[in-house]
Amino acid sequence: MAGDKEALFSQKNRKLLTDPLNDDNPITVQVLGICSALAITVQLKTAIVMSLAVMFVLVFGNLIVSLLRNLIPNRIRIIVQLLIVASLVILVDQVLKAYAYDVSKQLSVFVGLIITNCIIMGRFEAFALGNGPWKAILDGIGNTLGYGIILIIVAFFRELLGSGKLMGYEILGHKGKTIAESTGLYHFGYENNGFMLLSPMALITVGVLIWLQRSKNRKLIED
Amino acid sequence: MDRNSNLYTFIFAIIMVVVVAAGLAFTATTLKPLQAENVKKEKMQNILSSIGVNVDRNEAGDLFKDYVKEEIALNSDGTVNTDVDAFSIDLMKETKKPATEQAFPLYVAEKDGKTYYVVPLWGAGLWKEIWGYLALDDDKNTIIGASFDHAGETPGLGAEINQSWYEDQYIGKTIMDENQKFVSVTAIKGGADPNDQHAIDAISGGTITSEGVNKMLEERLNNYLPYFKNN
Prior knowledge:
- The complex is a heterodimer of chains A (223) and B (231).
- Chain A has helices at residues 11-18, 34-39, 44-67, 77-99, 101-107, 110-116, 118-126, 133-163, 199-216; strands at 165-166, 169-170.
- Chain A is mostly helical.
- Chain A has one domain (12-167, 195-214).
- Chain A has a two-stranded antiparallel ribbon.
- The mean pLDDT of chain A is 82.
- By secondary structure, chain B is α+β, with helices and mostly antiparallel strands.
- Chain B has one domain (38-230).
- In chain B, helix 1 crosses helix 2.
- Chain B is elongated.
- Chain B starts with 5 loop residues before the first helix and ends with a helix.
- The interface between A and B is medium-sized, with 23 and 22 residues.
Protein backbone atom coordinates (compact mmCIF):
# COMPACT_ATOMS: atom_id res chain seq x y z
CA MET A 1 0.00 0.00 0.00
CA ALA A 2 2.96 2.26 0.57
CA GLY A 3 3.33 2.83 -3.17
CA ASP A 4 -0.30 3.83 -3.74
CA LYS A 5 -0.82 7.12 -5.52
CA GLU A 6 -3.67 7.99 -3.26
CA ALA A 7 -4.58 11.56 -2.32
CA LEU A 8 -3.57 12.49 1.23
CA PHE A 9 -7.16 13.08 2.23
CA SER A 10 -8.98 10.71 -0.08
CA GLN A 11 -12.40 9.55 0.96
CA LYS A 12 -10.94 6.35 2.36
CA ASN A 13 -8.42 8.26 4.44
CA ARG A 14 -11.04 10.68 5.72
CA LYS A 15 -13.05 7.72 6.87
CA LEU A 16 -10.09 6.70 9.05
CA LEU A 17 -10.54 9.97 10.89
CA THR A 18 -14.33 10.07 11.09
CA ASP A 19 -15.29 6.42 11.57
CA PRO A 20 -13.97 6.15 15.13
CA LEU A 21 -16.02 9.19 16.11
CA ASN A 22 -19.30 7.37 15.71
CA ASP A 23 -19.71 4.10 13.77
CA ASP A 24 -16.54 2.54 15.09
CA ASN A 25 -15.98 4.38 18.36
CA PRO A 26 -13.32 2.66 20.45
CA ILE A 27 -15.22 3.06 23.71
CA THR A 28 -18.91 2.84 22.90
CA VAL A 29 -18.71 0.37 20.00
CA GLN A 30 -15.54 -1.62 20.52
CA VAL A 31 -15.69 -1.20 24.31
CA LEU A 32 -11.92 -0.77 24.59
CA GLY A 33 -10.08 1.55 26.96
CA ILE A 34 -12.87 1.36 29.51
CA CYS A 35 -10.48 1.18 32.47
CA SER A 36 -9.06 4.63 31.89
CA ALA A 37 -12.49 5.98 30.95
CA LEU A 38 -13.67 5.05 34.42
CA ALA A 39 -10.60 6.14 36.33
CA ILE A 40 -9.94 9.63 35.09
CA THR A 41 -13.30 11.13 34.19
CA VAL A 42 -13.93 12.66 37.62
CA GLN A 43 -12.72 16.00 36.30
CA LEU A 44 -12.88 17.50 32.81
CA LYS A 45 -9.30 18.70 33.00
CA THR A 46 -7.76 15.31 33.69
CA ALA A 47 -9.89 13.79 30.91
CA ILE A 48 -8.47 16.30 28.44
CA VAL A 49 -4.88 15.78 29.61
CA MET A 50 -5.34 12.02 29.32
CA SER A 51 -6.82 12.29 25.81
CA LEU A 52 -3.88 14.40 24.65
CA ALA A 53 -1.38 12.00 26.18
CA VAL A 54 -3.05 9.02 24.53
CA MET A 55 -3.15 10.88 21.23
CA PHE A 56 0.57 11.52 21.34
CA VAL A 57 1.41 7.93 22.22
CA LEU A 58 -1.01 6.36 19.74
CA VAL A 59 -0.04 8.56 16.80
CA PHE A 60 3.69 8.08 17.26
CA GLY A 61 3.30 4.44 18.24
CA ASN A 62 1.18 3.74 15.16
CA LEU A 63 3.76 5.50 13.03
CA ILE A 64 6.68 3.51 14.45
CA VAL A 65 4.87 0.18 14.27
CA SER A 66 3.78 0.93 10.73
CA LEU A 67 7.34 1.81 9.66
CA LEU A 68 8.69 -1.36 11.23
CA ARG A 69 5.79 -3.54 10.08
CA ASN A 70 7.84 -5.44 7.53
CA LEU A 71 10.68 -6.02 9.98
CA ILE A 72 8.91 -7.11 13.16
CA PRO A 73 9.12 -10.89 13.62
CA ASN A 74 5.62 -12.28 13.88
CA ARG A 75 6.21 -14.35 16.99
CA ILE A 76 7.34 -11.49 19.22
CA ARG A 77 5.21 -8.72 17.74
CA ILE A 78 3.10 -8.18 20.87
CA ILE A 79 6.19 -7.71 23.02
CA VAL A 80 7.71 -5.36 20.47
CA GLN A 81 4.50 -3.31 20.45
CA LEU A 82 4.50 -3.19 24.22
CA LEU A 83 8.11 -2.05 24.22
CA ILE A 84 7.26 0.77 21.82
CA VAL A 85 4.32 1.97 23.92
CA ALA A 86 6.22 1.75 27.19
CA SER A 87 9.28 3.58 25.93
CA LEU A 88 7.19 6.33 24.32
CA VAL A 89 5.28 6.87 27.52
CA ILE A 90 8.43 6.99 29.65
CA LEU A 91 10.05 9.34 27.16
CA VAL A 92 7.10 11.71 27.31
CA ASP A 93 7.02 11.55 31.08
CA GLN A 94 10.74 12.35 31.37
CA VAL A 95 10.51 15.30 29.00
CA LEU A 96 7.45 16.69 30.79
CA LYS A 97 9.16 16.33 34.17
CA ALA A 98 11.96 18.54 32.90
CA TYR A 99 10.06 21.11 30.83
CA ALA A 100 6.45 21.04 32.01
CA TYR A 101 6.60 19.94 35.61
CA ASP A 102 2.99 20.77 36.45
CA VAL A 103 1.59 18.74 33.58
CA SER A 104 3.78 15.81 34.55
CA LYS A 105 2.46 15.94 38.11
CA GLN A 106 -1.07 15.71 36.77
CA LEU A 107 -0.14 12.95 34.40
CA SER A 108 1.77 10.85 36.93
CA VAL A 109 -1.17 8.59 37.71
CA PHE A 110 -2.03 8.07 34.08
CA VAL A 111 1.32 6.91 32.80
CA GLY A 112 0.52 3.35 33.80
CA LEU A 113 -2.96 3.72 32.41
CA ILE A 114 -1.67 4.79 29.00
CA ILE A 115 0.57 1.74 28.70
CA THR A 116 -2.25 -0.62 29.58
CA ASN A 117 -4.84 1.17 27.44
CA CYS A 118 -6.23 -1.56 25.19
CA ILE A 119 -7.00 0.93 22.42
CA ILE A 120 -3.29 1.43 21.82
CA MET A 121 -2.36 -2.23 21.56
CA GLY A 122 -5.60 -2.82 19.65
CA ARG A 123 -4.77 -0.27 16.97
CA PHE A 124 -1.15 -1.43 16.65
CA GLU A 125 -2.27 -4.98 16.19
CA ALA A 126 -5.34 -4.37 14.04
CA PHE A 127 -4.23 -1.45 11.93
CA ALA A 128 -0.63 -0.25 12.07
CA LEU A 129 0.84 -3.70 11.38
CA GLY A 130 -0.97 -3.86 8.06
CA ASN A 131 -1.02 -0.28 6.80
CA GLY A 132 1.35 2.45 5.67
CA PRO A 133 2.62 5.29 7.90
CA TRP A 134 0.26 8.02 6.71
CA LYS A 135 -2.82 5.86 7.18
CA ALA A 136 -1.52 4.77 10.58
CA ILE A 137 -1.18 8.39 11.69
CA LEU A 138 -4.73 9.20 10.55
CA ASP A 139 -6.02 6.10 12.28
CA GLY A 140 -4.24 7.14 15.47
CA ILE A 141 -5.72 10.63 15.39
CA GLY A 142 -9.19 9.33 14.57
CA ASN A 143 -9.24 6.78 17.33
CA THR A 144 -7.99 9.13 20.01
CA LEU A 145 -10.56 11.71 18.94
CA GLY A 146 -13.27 9.09 19.31
CA TYR A 147 -11.83 8.09 22.67
CA GLY A 148 -11.37 11.70 23.80
CA ILE A 149 -14.91 12.74 22.89
CA ILE A 150 -16.46 10.04 25.04
CA LEU A 151 -14.04 10.82 27.87
CA ILE A 152 -14.93 14.49 27.74
CA ILE A 153 -18.68 13.84 27.62
CA VAL A 154 -18.49 11.50 30.60
CA ALA A 155 -16.22 13.86 32.54
CA PHE A 156 -18.54 16.78 31.77
CA PHE A 157 -21.47 15.08 33.47
CA ARG A 158 -19.44 13.63 36.33
CA GLU A 159 -17.74 16.90 37.26
CA LEU A 160 -20.91 18.96 36.81
CA LEU A 161 -23.20 16.70 38.83
CA GLY A 162 -20.58 15.35 41.22
CA SER A 163 -18.79 18.52 42.30
CA GLY A 164 -20.82 21.31 40.65
CA LYS A 165 -17.77 22.48 38.72
CA LEU A 166 -16.40 22.49 35.20
CA MET A 167 -12.65 22.74 34.61
CA GLY A 168 -12.42 23.56 38.32
CA TYR A 169 -14.73 26.61 38.12
CA GLU A 170 -17.75 26.59 40.40
CA ILE A 171 -20.50 27.07 37.85
CA LEU A 172 -23.45 26.05 39.99
CA GLY A 173 -22.55 28.56 42.68
CA HIS A 174 -20.45 28.34 45.78
CA LYS A 175 -21.30 25.89 48.53
CA GLY A 176 -20.75 27.48 51.92
CA LYS A 177 -20.98 25.88 55.36
CA THR A 178 -24.64 26.86 55.71
CA ILE A 179 -27.40 27.48 53.16
CA ALA A 180 -27.32 31.19 53.96
CA GLU A 181 -23.62 31.39 53.06
CA SER A 182 -24.07 29.49 49.81
CA THR A 183 -24.75 31.07 46.47
CA GLY A 184 -26.32 29.90 43.23
CA LEU A 185 -28.22 26.62 43.24
CA TYR A 186 -26.80 25.67 46.63
CA HIS A 187 -28.70 28.60 48.10
CA PHE A 188 -31.92 26.75 47.27
CA GLY A 189 -30.77 23.57 48.96
CA TYR A 190 -29.19 21.82 45.96
CA GLU A 191 -26.68 19.13 46.88
CA ASN A 192 -23.90 17.58 44.79
CA ASN A 193 -24.34 13.92 43.98
CA GLY A 194 -21.24 12.35 45.51
CA PHE A 195 -22.07 9.07 43.80
CA MET A 196 -21.13 10.63 40.45
CA LEU A 197 -17.53 10.80 41.66
CA LEU A 198 -17.29 7.05 42.07
CA SER A 199 -16.41 4.65 39.26
CA PRO A 200 -19.79 2.84 39.03
CA MET A 201 -21.44 6.04 37.80
CA ALA A 202 -18.84 6.35 35.06
CA LEU A 203 -19.80 2.89 33.89
CA ILE A 204 -23.48 3.82 33.97
CA THR A 205 -22.80 7.07 32.09
CA VAL A 206 -20.87 5.16 29.42
CA GLY A 207 -23.75 2.68 29.31
CA VAL A 208 -26.26 5.46 28.74
CA LEU A 209 -24.08 6.86 25.95
CA ILE A 210 -23.90 3.43 24.29
CA TRP A 211 -27.68 3.14 24.53
CA LEU A 212 -28.23 6.62 23.06
CA GLN A 213 -25.81 5.95 20.24
CA ARG A 214 -27.31 2.58 19.40
CA SER A 215 -30.82 3.95 19.32
CA LYS A 216 -29.79 6.75 16.93
CA ASN A 217 -27.26 5.01 14.67
CA ARG A 218 -29.01 2.55 12.31
CA LYS A 219 -25.73 0.83 11.38
CA LEU A 220 -25.26 -0.38 14.91
CA ILE A 221 -28.68 -1.96 15.31
CA GLU A 222 -28.33 -5.69 15.43
CA ASP A 223 -31.06 -8.06 14.31
CA MET B 1 16.56 -13.17 5.81
CA ASP B 2 13.65 -15.34 6.91
CA ARG B 3 11.51 -13.29 9.24
CA ASN B 4 10.29 -16.36 11.06
CA SER B 5 13.66 -17.88 11.84
CA ASN B 6 14.86 -18.01 15.41
CA LEU B 7 18.05 -16.17 14.55
CA TYR B 8 16.18 -13.25 13.02
CA THR B 9 13.85 -13.05 16.02
CA PHE B 10 16.78 -12.96 18.41
CA ILE B 11 18.70 -10.37 16.44
CA PHE B 12 15.64 -8.17 16.08
CA ALA B 13 14.87 -8.40 19.79
CA ILE B 14 18.45 -7.57 20.78
CA ILE B 15 18.72 -4.58 18.45
CA MET B 16 15.33 -3.25 19.50
CA VAL B 17 16.09 -3.52 23.21
CA VAL B 18 19.53 -1.94 22.86
CA VAL B 19 18.19 0.97 20.82
CA VAL B 20 15.31 1.63 23.19
CA ALA B 21 17.47 1.29 26.31
CA ALA B 22 20.11 3.63 24.92
CA GLY B 23 17.49 6.18 23.93
CA LEU B 24 15.80 6.15 27.31
CA ALA B 25 19.06 6.18 29.25
CA PHE B 26 20.28 9.13 27.21
CA THR B 27 17.10 11.14 27.78
CA ALA B 28 17.01 10.32 31.48
CA THR B 29 20.62 11.38 32.06
CA THR B 30 20.44 14.58 30.03
CA LEU B 31 17.20 15.69 31.63
CA LYS B 32 18.16 14.78 35.19
CA PRO B 33 19.58 18.20 36.22
CA LEU B 34 16.49 20.01 34.91
CA GLN B 35 14.20 17.63 36.75
CA ALA B 36 16.12 17.93 40.00
CA GLU B 37 15.91 21.70 39.69
CA ASN B 38 12.12 21.49 39.37
CA VAL B 39 11.81 19.31 42.46
CA LYS B 40 14.04 21.67 44.42
CA LYS B 41 12.06 24.73 43.37
CA GLU B 42 8.80 23.04 44.25
CA LYS B 43 10.14 22.35 47.74
CA MET B 44 11.10 26.02 48.11
CA GLN B 45 7.69 27.01 46.82
CA ASN B 46 5.98 24.82 49.45
CA ILE B 47 8.11 26.18 52.28
CA LEU B 48 7.34 29.74 51.20
CA SER B 49 3.63 29.04 50.91
CA SER B 50 3.54 27.78 54.51
CA ILE B 51 4.61 31.25 55.72
CA GLY B 52 2.01 32.83 53.45
CA VAL B 53 4.25 33.77 50.52
CA ASN B 54 2.63 32.38 47.40
CA VAL B 55 4.93 32.56 44.43
CA ASP B 56 5.34 31.14 40.99
CA ARG B 57 7.74 28.21 40.89
CA ASN B 58 10.18 30.09 38.68
CA GLU B 59 10.58 32.88 41.22
CA ALA B 60 10.81 30.51 44.17
CA GLY B 61 14.60 30.18 44.00
CA ASP B 62 15.31 33.89 44.40
CA LEU B 63 12.57 34.62 46.91
CA PHE B 64 13.56 31.64 49.01
CA LYS B 65 16.91 33.33 49.68
CA ASP B 66 15.16 36.56 50.64
CA TYR B 67 12.83 34.99 53.16
CA VAL B 68 14.60 31.97 54.58
CA LYS B 69 17.48 33.20 56.72
CA GLU B 70 18.66 29.94 58.21
CA GLU B 71 18.45 26.29 57.27
CA ILE B 72 19.48 24.18 60.22
CA ALA B 73 19.67 20.48 60.92
CA LEU B 74 18.96 19.44 64.51
CA ASN B 75 19.92 16.41 66.54
CA SER B 76 17.23 14.71 68.58
CA ASP B 77 18.49 16.47 71.76
CA GLY B 78 17.91 19.88 70.17
CA THR B 79 21.52 20.74 69.40
CA VAL B 80 22.47 21.91 65.94
CA ASN B 81 24.12 19.40 63.68
CA THR B 82 26.52 21.35 61.49
CA ASP B 83 27.66 18.37 59.41
CA VAL B 84 24.39 18.07 57.54
CA ASP B 85 22.93 20.34 54.88
CA ALA B 86 19.36 20.84 56.06
CA PHE B 87 17.84 21.45 52.64
CA SER B 88 19.16 18.22 51.19
CA ILE B 89 17.75 16.02 53.96
CA ASP B 90 15.41 13.46 52.42
CA LEU B 91 12.76 12.79 55.05
CA MET B 92 11.67 9.62 53.30
CA LYS B 93 15.04 8.06 54.07
CA GLU B 94 15.65 9.95 57.29
CA THR B 95 12.47 8.81 59.04
CA LYS B 96 13.51 5.18 58.59
CA LYS B 97 16.48 5.67 60.95
CA PRO B 98 16.09 5.49 64.74
CA ALA B 99 15.12 8.88 66.22
CA THR B 100 18.47 9.41 67.92
CA GLU B 101 20.38 9.13 64.64
CA GLN B 102 18.08 11.31 62.57
CA ALA B 103 18.77 14.88 61.57
CA PHE B 104 15.74 17.16 61.78
CA PRO B 105 15.64 20.00 59.27
CA LEU B 106 14.26 23.35 60.37
CA TYR B 107 13.89 26.52 58.33
CA VAL B 108 14.02 29.89 60.04
CA ALA B 109 12.29 32.46 57.89
CA GLU B 110 11.82 36.18 58.23
CA LYS B 111 8.81 38.02 56.85
CA ASP B 112 7.96 41.66 57.56
CA GLY B 113 10.49 41.72 60.41
CA LYS B 114 9.00 38.70 62.17
CA THR B 115 10.69 35.36 62.62
CA TYR B 116 8.91 32.16 61.66
CA TYR B 117 9.91 28.54 62.10
CA VAL B 118 9.03 26.10 59.32
CA VAL B 119 8.97 22.42 60.25
CA PRO B 120 8.98 19.88 57.40
CA LEU B 121 6.63 16.94 57.95
CA TRP B 122 6.57 13.39 56.64
CA GLY B 123 4.15 10.60 57.45
CA ALA B 124 1.83 7.91 56.21
CA GLY B 125 -1.64 8.44 54.80
CA LEU B 126 -4.15 5.77 53.88
CA TRP B 127 -2.57 4.57 50.63
CA LYS B 128 0.79 6.24 50.36
CA GLU B 129 2.99 8.82 52.04
CA ILE B 130 1.86 12.30 53.01
CA TRP B 131 4.06 15.29 53.74
CA GLY B 132 3.91 18.99 54.36
CA TYR B 133 5.28 22.07 56.06
CA LEU B 134 4.05 23.70 59.24
CA ALA B 135 5.02 27.29 59.98
CA LEU B 136 5.10 28.48 63.59
CA ASP B 137 5.12 32.05 64.86
CA ASP B 138 8.16 33.32 66.78
CA ASP B 139 6.51 32.15 70.01
CA LYS B 140 7.17 28.62 68.60
CA ASN B 141 3.60 27.78 69.53
CA THR B 142 1.05 29.43 67.27
CA ILE B 143 0.62 27.95 63.80
CA ILE B 144 0.66 30.60 61.10
CA GLY B 145 0.41 28.33 58.11
CA ALA B 146 0.31 24.74 56.98
CA SER B 147 0.70 23.14 53.59
CA PHE B 148 0.17 19.44 53.03
CA ASP B 149 0.48 17.16 50.05
CA HIS B 150 0.13 13.47 49.32
CA ALA B 151 1.31 10.83 46.91
CA GLY B 152 -1.94 9.02 46.34
CA GLU B 153 -4.81 9.63 48.75
CA THR B 154 -8.38 9.11 47.52
CA PRO B 155 -9.51 12.05 45.34
CA GLY B 156 -12.36 13.98 46.95
CA LEU B 157 -11.74 12.33 50.33
CA GLY B 158 -8.25 12.00 51.81
CA ALA B 159 -6.75 13.99 48.93
CA GLU B 160 -8.53 17.06 50.32
CA ILE B 161 -5.64 17.58 52.76
CA ASN B 162 -3.88 19.69 50.16
CA GLN B 163 -6.91 21.98 49.76
CA SER B 164 -6.92 25.37 51.43
CA TRP B 165 -10.17 24.77 53.34
CA TYR B 166 -8.40 22.02 55.24
CA GLU B 167 -4.97 23.63 55.57
CA ASP B 168 -6.33 27.01 56.67
CA GLN B 169 -8.05 25.43 59.67
CA TYR B 170 -4.63 25.08 61.30
CA ILE B 171 -3.92 28.79 61.22
CA GLY B 172 -4.07 30.33 64.69
CA LYS B 173 -4.14 27.00 66.52
CA THR B 174 -1.47 26.33 69.14
CA ILE B 175 0.63 23.25 69.69
CA MET B 176 1.26 23.79 73.44
CA ASP B 177 -1.32 24.02 76.24
CA GLU B 178 -1.32 26.70 78.98
CA ASN B 179 1.25 24.76 80.99
CA GLN B 180 3.65 24.68 78.04
CA LYS B 181 3.01 20.98 77.57
CA PHE B 182 3.04 19.69 73.99
CA VAL B 183 -0.41 18.60 72.79
CA SER B 184 -0.18 19.08 68.99
CA VAL B 185 -3.24 19.89 66.87
CA THR B 186 -5.67 17.09 66.16
CA ALA B 187 -8.21 16.66 63.37
CA ILE B 188 -11.37 15.36 64.99
CA LYS B 189 -13.90 13.13 63.27
CA GLY B 190 -17.39 14.59 63.36
CA GLY B 191 -16.12 18.16 63.79
CA ALA B 192 -14.15 20.02 66.43
CA ASP B 193 -15.30 22.57 69.01
CA PRO B 194 -14.44 25.93 67.37
CA ASN B 195 -13.07 27.20 70.70
CA ASP B 196 -10.66 24.30 71.08
CA GLN B 197 -7.17 25.65 70.40
CA HIS B 198 -5.82 22.21 69.58
CA ALA B 199 -8.49 20.72 67.34
CA ILE B 200 -9.77 21.09 63.79
CA ASP B 201 -12.43 19.33 61.70
CA ALA B 202 -11.33 16.07 60.11
CA ILE B 203 -12.30 15.25 56.52
CA SER B 204 -15.61 13.41 56.19
CA GLY B 205 -14.85 10.09 54.53
CA GLY B 206 -11.13 10.71 54.92
CA THR B 207 -10.74 9.56 58.51
CA ILE B 208 -7.62 7.47 58.05
CA THR B 209 -5.86 10.21 56.11
CA SER B 210 -6.86 12.77 58.78
CA GLU B 211 -5.49 10.48 61.45
CA GLY B 212 -2.31 10.13 59.40
CA VAL B 213 -1.95 13.91 59.49
CA ASN B 214 -2.52 13.90 63.26
CA LYS B 215 0.12 11.27 63.79
CA MET B 216 2.56 13.00 61.45
CA LEU B 217 2.18 16.34 63.27
CA GLU B 218 2.55 14.82 66.70
CA GLU B 219 5.54 12.64 65.86
CA ARG B 220 7.47 15.19 63.89
CA LEU B 221 6.84 18.24 66.10
CA ASN B 222 7.80 16.26 69.16
CA ASN B 223 11.37 16.07 67.87
CA TYR B 224 11.71 19.84 67.70
CA LEU B 225 10.59 20.51 71.28
CA PRO B 226 14.09 20.38 72.86
CA TYR B 227 15.30 22.99 70.36
CA PHE B 228 12.26 25.20 70.83
CA LYS B 229 12.71 25.06 74.61
CA ASN B 230 16.37 26.08 74.51
CA ASN B 231 16.21 28.82 71.91
